[in-house]
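Long-time lurker. I teach an intro course on protein structure, and each term I like to show students one example going from raw sequence to a predicted 3D structure in C-alpha cell notation. This year I'd like something fresh instead of my usual example. Would anyone be willing to generate the C-alpha cells for the chain below so I can use it in lecture? Attribution to the forum is fine with me.
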Amino acid sequence: MKKRLLAWVLSFALALSLLPVGVLAAEGEVVASGFCGDRQPRAVSWVLDETGKLTISGTGDMEAYEYYGEYHPYNRFAPWYAHREQIQSVVIEQGVTNVGSYSFYACENLSDVSMAESVMEINWGAFYGCASLSMITIPSEVTDIGSYAFYKTSLNSIIIPDKVTTIGGSAFGGSKVTSIALPKSVSYLYYYAFDGIELESITVDSENRYYCSVDGVLYDKDMTSIIKYPQAKSGTTFSTLESVEDINRQAFSDSQYLSEIIMQEGLKTIEGAAFSNCKNLTQVTIPESVAAIESGAFAGCANLKSIIIPEGVSVIKPNTFSECGELEWIQIPVSIESIESSAFRECKNLSDVYYGGSEKQWSLIDISDYNDYNDVLFTTTIHYNSTGPDTSDPGESNQPQYILAKFTGYDEATKQ
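-- Reply from a regular --
Happy to contribute to a lecture. Here you go:
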C-alpha cells in the first residue's frame, strides 16, 4: 500500500514538473497552458484561467507568430488563438522581454493589458484587432513599437515612453488616438507610421535630434521635409515653409479638410501618394522648382479641378492623377517625355490638355496605353504651344489620324 502511495505521489510530482511555471499560480481553474518562448521555447510559458486571464511568464522573448491575411495557408497563430474569445486580460510578467508578433491577434474581448518593465519590444501586429482595448501603458523600457502593433484597437490616447526609438507603419492605425507626442528618443518613423489615425496634431520633444513639429505638422529636424500632416487637422488651406525641399510619401494622404495647397519655391520633390485621397482638395500650386512628382501623388483627389505641371518634370508617373474624377484641365510642359501607366485612369471629366510644345513634340511623348487606362488623352482636346487656358493655339481634338500616328507610324506631314 505504501509503495502504491509513493508511486502515486511520484507520478503526480512528475506531472507537475512538466507543467509550465505559473500554472500552479493561476487564480482560477486552468483552461489551457503551454510554452511560447522564442529561441528557448520552454523558457516562456502561458496559462489561461477560467476568469479569462492569460498570464505570460518566464525569461526571454516570446515567439513571433505570422498573419498574412484571412484564410492564408501560411498564417501561424499563437497557441491560445483557439481560446481568443475567452481572453479578457493579459499579464506579461517580469522576465519576459518582448511581445511577439501577432501574439494577441483578434482577441476582440481583451480589455486589460499589464506588461512588466522587462518588456523592451512590442512587435509587429502584437495587439492587432483587439477591438475592446481602449487603454494601455507601454513599459518605460520599450524601444521599438512594430508596424500594426495596436492596429484596429479602441485606444483613445497613447503615451510613448522616453526610450522608444522606432515606430512602425500604422502602429496605431484604426484606433481612436487623436494626438501623438514624440519623445526625444524617437529616431526612425516608418513613412506610414501614422496612417489610419484621425490625428489632429503631432508634437515633438524639443530635444529630439531628428524631428520637429510646427503648428501640429511633423517635419524633419532641419525642416526640409514634411513628414506628416495630421489627417484630421483643422483648416482648409496650407502653405509649405520656404525651407521645405521634399514632401514625403503619404505626407498629406487622407487629409479630411484641406481644399488648397500652396507649395513654395524651393520645393524639389513630391513623393509617392503624397496627397492621395485628399477628397476635398480642389486647388494645388506647384512651383517651378519641382523636378519630380512620384507615383500616385494625387491619386484619389476626387475634387481636384485643374493642375499645372512645372517645366523640368520629365515623367508623369503611374497613377499620378488616377481617380481624379473632377479634373477638367491640366497644363503639361514640353519637358515631359513619357506618361506612364494609369496616370489619368478614371479622369472622366478631363476635357482640355494645355501642352507647351508643338503637335509634333506631343506625338513623340511615350504615352502608356496599358489596359487603355490613359485613353482619355486620345479623346480630349489638346492645345499646342500653350502655357494655360486662354494662352494657346486653337484646340484640336484628337482624331483617328492622330491615333494612327501614335501607334502605326503614320506621318501627318507626308500623309504616309
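Some talking points for your students: Residues 5-26, 395-416 have pLDDT under 50 and may be disordered. DSSP finds three helices and 29 strands in the chain.
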